[in-house]
């Protein structure tokens, strides 16, 4: 195709960054991946082998400086630098697709939105989105359009879980130091979905959470748990029930149900890798994807293509960046509740209601 | 309950006979099991232990003679004596529930019908039915009523399979000597279902079958196979596709599909033992019943109760005995086709169309 | 069968009482239903028509007095008289199967246990159980035995829901006046299951609940809701997530999942009426039972038969009566949390931990 | 990517051709679509709008002549010119991906193979494959690798169906004039799958088929049917059961089952559009793809990418062209049997066994 392509760079080449790189390099016809950055020489070596013709940088700032033609940046580095890198790109007027979460802190997340609000005054066609991949998933989209059509009446009860396969390598324990906790890392997707299905303007009334360490007691040193359940109550008569886990035996189980006054939709209530069923002496079974990427690969590719189209054609982004701050805020509050054991309440304009005598000792 | 109960005897206490005995003894409130017969002393000993208060006989004729109050007989002996025992009871004016098949021979099967047609002149409220248990199954009945309601338009293509779990004990090989072959033993249920769903007055136009011995080559000495597929063509634009097997790994797989001009129904397309799903490192699975009884237990109990009610209340039997002869006729023709490799055709009044020069050698 | 049968009376002939009556009358071979009582003349008239040979009473006490041979009573009257009627029968040394809940009040429920503890000293073979029907369900039992076998490791996270079909008649609103609330009426089953799967000796650490009135705001006058979610936290690292609803569109959805450290079991995650699937222009669908009885009929019949056997043979009851008090206690606490919005905590010996400064106004 | 791309042309821009064009234009990074041809000006106009930078031709020969840099041709024109166009490209030494079937005639299909066998002597790295899209489907591939691994023992009974949604527009009737009949058009995929799963060297022993016109009696004028079932028997104890239909109510139902001596695999036994389930007053349902493209889109894209890689890297093609001739041969024999009502037999080297006295009248 001879049309101009969107010149894209990727920051970070870890688990997700390397996938983004391949998606933009090979599976996004309207994009041209021109550069990648990573502080890790091994990741740079991987890029040299796998991303033919793409320039590599050990330093993100240097990449931004050197790549004069750059139009868009995908931030998929460590969460701790998401906001900083996103803001640098935003301030240059570049389009940004920033991996979730913007930050594990609601306040820091807000700085990304603030930067974007400033920058867009100068660059009115600038696009910045947070990578809530499920928003690009065909099944979630189908469910959303059915809800919008009124098929289930008024959506009222939402249940969603993000449950990872047990990883005996200790990965999740290491990761817990920086992840913001299981509610910020896993459930942020479910929170974002709740906001999507209930309406972005939904106001959280309270959150409560409880958790355990069933397989990884080491998580406690990082104020984290390996299984947790939570309730998010919204003003206007809507409730969300959440479950996150690092302990699934069969594989990734990311299931959502939306119950309305006239019907219900489930998404992935019966996880499966593909359309094969196996009949053997143990019964009839299907395999399920071991990781989130097995479930959401197509969504990530759609994300890459739609982000690209959005930037090139100056069309509206599929969802607003502000939601990413709300999601972090809710996730962080759930994580706090998980650790303190306290229910946290908010007023109708989103301000936290202080408990009169919060028992400090437990915090 | 103080109402008079139907006095019932069971002939034969093998695999199915012993179950019938327990059903009539314990799970059929309006019936009273008063006697059982079996030529096998071990089975009689079983009866003594398990059928409290029930008289036992080593000889069927003796039982008929001694039990003056007897009102109904359930014939569940070896297939080879089904017809003879049924006819004896019929001639005494007793109600009869005869296990399928009436006989492996269509001609002998017909003698049962003939005896009944004679006897009913003298005993106008006499009931004789063949034990097509699936006719009493809640799922098949639901499907049938949906078809009758017009939900799928005109039923046109029928697919059904009766597939047993692999039994490495050699049971099926021994059994093949007397079973009439896999199409008479297994597929007779599917043939009966086809007649039910297409209409009892459906006329078979042709049958063809092909089979293999994948696990039990010894079956060939009895002109049988362990896996076979067949096609039954009906006049009026209806076709049935059959599969029978002795080799299933997971358990009993008895599945039926009825495709109509405006919809389709499947029955047991996803076999299951119960509502439990197991998630482990191999995926998500459900267990399935190992044998037909696990799938059809409730149907057998319904059969016992409805047969009893029918006899006591002199209400119409749920299906006519003549169909049992047609089913054997079709099953035997399929079995012949399986062995000869020849398609067998019938004219519109059910007479076999002779091939002009049937290659005798192959028969 | 000539063995002596258990002489049973039923108290209450409402929705569930009439079913118990039929189960004991027709489907429990070792029981003989001899009497029923109901203050409602219409129910007595129903009994006269449907329970041939069974004596009827408008007054429960009179029945107890008159039926000298009575051995067992099934209490299935209005919840408000469960405890009183059960205790009267207990004090007479009769076996009792009391419908759930013993009472909507934990304290009153405890009086039943206390009465039984007293009575059993004089009547050591007396049996008293609470009618937790799911304990008799084949799928739950299969799941339980799999958990016991260690199949899923240590059960850690439990999710269960009891969700009724939307009933536009207003039944649930009327019913709410006496039901104890949705957590006591519906979720009591799920709580009992949690205690079963986690172990009867599990100690509740906290409960929290949130609810809405999505379709029946009138419920608020009775301090009830039509949809609610709750969390029950147990000492020892176990959590239960509950959902109850009166608003399901498709039918009864009673689903349970038990996640362990090495696997997971789901029970009824894909509700279905039977094994039929319907293919039409809207897709492929299965129907689901409209009410709990469609799902649990077999369990109720098993309950009747096993209770009978237990009484006749003086064998151990399948679960202890004390659990019924714990279940009510947890259900009532969840209901309180639902209304007050407060998390309720318990110490390790089950005593409620008082909040230091509970904001009285909200209670 | 700066590596040289495979220069591809598409012949035919109908239903499938236009999709191939888009797949190669946008979703095959290593290919460059440089030209398309179609005798239909409307299709050429479509190409001008949708295939930016791609040259268009009303004449296939002219395209071949003009496009000097062309390396590969995708033949997706009307079936009647498949072979001719494929051979022209083959004779120029071009790589060819020819849509199925090569021809509706086994003899004509063979000419393509013969041309390739000749040409490859001069162009040893030339690739020619037939577009059996299911060979590229992730689920079929997973099933195949499981069979290869021995998971189900020796595959013995194969059941497969290609069932199209009812199309009331009359499309299928028009199409029947040139399609070669339902067994050549639809079942050819199932036949190819049987050959794949049983082994490409499997020898057909006999075919039999029966069919009806349940909704489109007009098909009879073209010797076609709207529903048909067939049996393909292979030497060595293997059988395939086929069903093809133009009458499905719910959508495309392409289901396959492979039963082996130690297990079974099903592929798409429960068709679905995506992972959404809808709960409403009619039950629980999932939607299913209306057409084959909804089911196999990803497989077509994989096909485009793998064909491209194969040509560029001179790696082995995933399956041999000869199988496409066998598939047409079997499909055409089934279609003949469907019309004549005769079973057709073959000897062990694939030659048809003549019936001694074929009743000419019926042919």
TrEMBL record, chains A, B, C, D:
Residues 140-265 form the GFO/IDH/MocA-like oxidoreductase domain. InterPro entries: Gfo/Idh/MocA-like_OxRdtase_N, GFO_IDH_MocA-like_dom, NAD(P)-bd_dom_sf. The keyword Kinase does not apply. Pfam families: GFO_IDH_MocA, GFO_IDH_MocA_C3. It comes from the Eukaryota. One of its GO terms (molecular function) is oxidoreductase activity. Transmembrane segments: none annotated. Residues 6-118 form the Gfo/Idh/MocA-like oxidoreductase N-terminal domain. GO terms for biological process: NADPH regeneration. The keyword Transmembrane helix does not apply. One of its GO terms (cellular component) is cytoplasm. Keywords: Oxidoreductase. PANTHER family: BINDING ROSSMANN FOLD OXIDOREDUCTASE, PUTATIVE (AFU_ORTHOLOGUE AFUA_2G10240)-RELATED, NAD(P)-BINDING ROSSMANN-FOLD SUPERFAMILY PROTEIN-RELATED. Belongs to the Gfo/Idh/MocA family. This is Oxidoreductase.
């Amino acid at each position: 195709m001879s049309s101009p392509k969107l010149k894209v760079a990727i920051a970070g080449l870890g688990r997700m960054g390397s996938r983004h790189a391949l998606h933009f390099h090979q599976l996004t016809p309207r994009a041209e991946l021109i550069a990648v950055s990573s502080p890790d020489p091994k990741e740079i070596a991987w890029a040299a082998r796998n991303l033919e013709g793409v320039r590599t940088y050990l330093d993100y700032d240097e990449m931004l400086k050197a790549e004069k033609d750059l139009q868009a940046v995908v931030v998929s580095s460590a969460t701790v630098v998401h906001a900083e890198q996103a803001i640098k790109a935003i301030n240059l007027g570049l389009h940004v697709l920033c991996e979730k979460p913007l930050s594990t802190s609601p306040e820091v997340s807000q700085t990304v939105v603030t930067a974007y609000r400033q920058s867009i005054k100068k660059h009115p066609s600038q696009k910045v989105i947070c990578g809530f991949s499920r928003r690009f998933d065909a099944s979630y989209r189908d469910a959303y359009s059915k809800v919008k059509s009124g098929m289930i009446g008024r959506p009222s009860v939402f249940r969603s879980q993000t449950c990872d396969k047990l990883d005996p390598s200790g990965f999740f324990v290491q990761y817990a130091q920086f992840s913001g906790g299981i509610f910020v890392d896993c459930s942020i997707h479910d929170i974002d979905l709740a906001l999507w299905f209930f309406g972005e303007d939904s106001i959280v009334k309270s959150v409560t959470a409880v958790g355990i360490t069933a397989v990884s007691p080491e998580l406690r040193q990082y104020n984290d748990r390996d299984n947790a359940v939570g309730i998010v109550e919204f003003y206007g008569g809507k409730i969300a029930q959440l479950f996150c886990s690092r302990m699934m035996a069969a594989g990734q189980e990311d299931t959502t149900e939306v119950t309305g006054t006239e019907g219900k939709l489930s998404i992935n209530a019966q996880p499966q890798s593909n359309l094969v069923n196996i009949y053997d002496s143990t019964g009839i079974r299907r395999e399920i994807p071991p990781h989130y990427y097995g479930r959401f690969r197509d969504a990530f590719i759609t994300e890459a293509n739609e982000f690209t189209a959005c930037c090139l054609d100056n069309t509206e982004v599929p969802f607003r960046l502000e939601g990413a701050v709300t999601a972090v805020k809710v996730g962080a509050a759930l994580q706090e509740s998980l650790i303190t054991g306290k229910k946290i309440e908010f007023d109708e304009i989103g301000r936290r209601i202080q408990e009169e005598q919060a028992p400090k000792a437990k915090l």
